[in-house]
Queue: 2 jobs
Job 1
Amino acid sequence: MVQFSTARLDASFAALSDATRRGVLEQLGSADASITELAEKFHMTLTGMKKHIGVLEQAGLVTTEKVGRVRTCRLGSRGLEEEAAWIEARRQIWNARFDTLDQVIEALKRKEKVDGGQSE
Amino acid sequence: MGDRASNGRTAVERRSELELVVTRTFNGPVRLVFDAWTKPELFKLWWAPKSMGVPLLSCEMDVRTGGSYRITFGHDASDAMAFFGKYLDVSPPSRLVWTNDEGGEEGAVTTVTFEEEEGRTLLVLQELYPSKEALDQSFVGMEDALPEQFEQLDELLITLSASV
């Protein structure tokens, strides 16, 4: 399954060593927020909050997305990685089965055509 | 929750702690798709794609409400894995429900619905597990499966087409 590298674990611990950054994660746990909103909430400059978000992003704990002039932050999907891998494995099985089933259905359709559309 | 994997045409989604939902549209009428799920000779052609790495050894299906099925995978009888259960609901050509009793009390109930739309079939397969742990463990050992080209199937289809 999913392997966490030491480097990434180090980045996570470093990211979590700061009280503001832990507060930001807690905040994003309840709702997404823009950097501006987070800066206000934690009484910081925009630049200061950007740095914190940068650290959290490096560690994969937060993802950000810029829409227009606003950069929205949300919790990263790391916690979901293992589940995502599991889901993907299921998808691959079903996809393989269904690709094969597609072919079977094509063959059945051809057969019906040949039989003049007479199915049992 | 709500985690999802979808590329190509098969979407798989964990809709809740206990539920996995697979959707796919097939380019054929419902009656053909339903046949492919309920006639053993057709079911055998696609249920164990080569990429699973384990061939289908046997397949017995008594497809009617209350009937049972037993499917074995393996290279020979000594390493066979059996999957078996009962059909709780067989309503041609729109609905199939069966139990997965090899999981004992942890076994899921599978519901497949078939819906026709302009000659195509929307298929929704739901696996409902009795507990979160059962769902989490349901896939152990199958992680390595990958889709691939099915040369075997091509040969088979040629045979099928030739036999008409």
Job 2
Amino acid sequence: MVTHDAAHDQHAQAPSGWLRAYVFSVDHKVIGLQYLMTSMLFLLAGFGLMLLMRWQLAFPGQPIPIIGKLLSPSLAPNGVMTGEFYNALGAMHGTIMVFLGIVPLAVGAFGNYVLPLQIGAPDMAFPRLNMMSYWLYLPGGLLMLSSFILPGGAAQSGWTSYPPLSIINPGQTVWLLAMVIIITSSLLGAINFLVTTLNMRARGMSLWRMPVFVWAQLVTSVLLLLAFPPLEAAAVLQFMDRVAGTSFYIPSDLVVLGLRHRASGGGQPLLWQHLFWFLAHPEVYVLVLPPMGIVAEIMAANTRKPLHGYKTIVLGMISVGVMSFVVWAHHMFISGMSPILSNFFLVTTMIISVPSVAILTCLIYSLRGGSIRFTTPMLFALAFLPMFGIGGLTGLPLGLTATDIYLHDTYYVIGHFHYVVVTGSIIGLMAGVYHWFPKWFGRKMDDRLGRIHFWGTLLSMNGVFFPMFIMGMAGVSRRLWDPTAQAHNLTTQHLNVVSTASAYLLLLFQAPFIYNFFHSIFKGQKSEENPWQATTLEWACPSPPPHGNFEKPPCVYREPYDYSPRGCERDYIPQNVEAA
Amino acid sequence: MAASAPQCAGSGVSNAKLGVWLFLASEVMLFATLFTTYLVLRLGSASWPRGWETLNVPLAMMNTFVLITSSVTMVLAYAKAVERDLAGFRKFMGITILLGFAFLAVKSVEYGTKFHHHHYPSTNIFFAIYFTMTGLHGLHVIGGIIVNSALYYLSGKEWDHPLFVGRVEGAGLYWHFVDIVWIFLFPALYLL
């Protein structure tokens, strides 16, 4: 392994100079923390956009308090947001949360920091490429965010950017450019993660000894590698439609506002939907698999017993990954595609729920007979199980054509995927922050504040999203600027107020987290190398790990979760310990 | 939970080579999407112009030979790098780079004639897909020329670097991929 040693030599000495060490660093740990901070800021920004929208939904036509005065009159005359601004907020909320918030947090931050440590590697396979990933992600994200102040404003066609609207609406060109930059960043990251996992493992770290989190990142990287290029191609085509006047997605004789559209026509709007969802369905698993891996790590360490069905979980993740490429059109049951195709995608969608349920069942069963430690990360991990369960199970009626025809494009759909990615993914990622914080900064986060954050967040998240199921079943459409404009929505309008109030409560309950996070970096209780008495390799190096991570390359002698072994004094044996 | 003696873990393929293969996997998905788009649009439209009636087949044929030849010289450059023959490497790598430029030159003549006849991407769906696919392929050719030129330049300084031969191999894999894409593009756009 020539390259392995070369990478080792090249980065044996720590970088000198502030700029090399903290800004343009090639160390996976620094890059991981850069991703962590940036993606959490983007999450907060995306959440902020939603808070504005929720005001309009609960109190349509009333001026937004405080912030309404600060917004430019073109966006919100007299503090009341326009429909166009509402649409822009919606499109940017989805885009920012998915592509700039959760994925960079789950993969860029956790993957970058934890994966090399867990496989016992000194760094990523391509450290400079790793730095480039981050330095594409940040400008891409800023470009996306800056579209609010650029002429034409932000994109207004939803995060799905369906044509022909997306080709006619202003603001979309910047969205497409930013997406291509972000996609390139993701692709570089995915290649790096795959090569690192396949080539840089410590001696003895066979594939079946890798922690579940590493497996989750491996499958995620394959999804990013193979699902993102089709969206990149689709984005290039949409870019051509907007800039070069082609008509890939514009049908013949399209009439807009009573005028025949200038494009030559002959294109197919449905083509975009297929290409978009070919990425965007695997993307759902990109959002979900890393948090699942995080939850598995935390469950094993806090139940003090091996995970139930380690191989089932791993095989489940692999089959979810493979299957995720053949379910995309269940997002399109009412798009007018052939019913024969609908049946195919209905069947595959029902099949993909099987491995997902298997993984969740294994995690729930891992609790049985464990001596559970109710630490803050464990509370979040425990909450992940039923919350993600609700998110998954409410998806089934959307995967069946008959029920989907009624529920499609209602608030039920919004409730469903927010239960998956907010009470599922984000809760799982929060668990990860509390779990690995001692490794990152050598100090623990405060438990009391953690508990306040946990209970407040869990309750208010359910307050935000549960009413959406009821509204959706009552027939409230999504993407409404003013829900009171339709009479049948009035019966559930009070639920919009509940949801909005819960959203502000959710913001409030992030305050203890933000305070706790920054306070603990400097003043938190000091933590030793392995504060949770966990078995995986990241706990076998100092906290925080020095440049190059391990003093000498570790050797792996056992499966990842050797908790409570028979005839042993301690209730755990780390992976790098030879004798029992 | 029996503990056993640790063995070396790894794929046996060097980082750089594995990285290039994975990158090519993503590139396959990119161009597969474009070819699928081509098929869907063509099957969905009432009429489709014959490629040979609107496009210049002899020029494209010549370009095909240029690219195939450049793939051969690329392999020869790699072989010379393995044999540690710097002069031979530079000769064949230089030819590869020049052939890349020749391809682009012919392509720009083709584009120029199209624009002269007022055929633009916005003219119809056929020219839309023609310009988009060949344009994206052209960008990949430019990328390959940059990589190859960088290796030509670096061969003076880093000839004895342990990773140099591997880099040439990686660049070669990429160059062959760019070649193969054209092998599919040529019949799809010009002949069918």
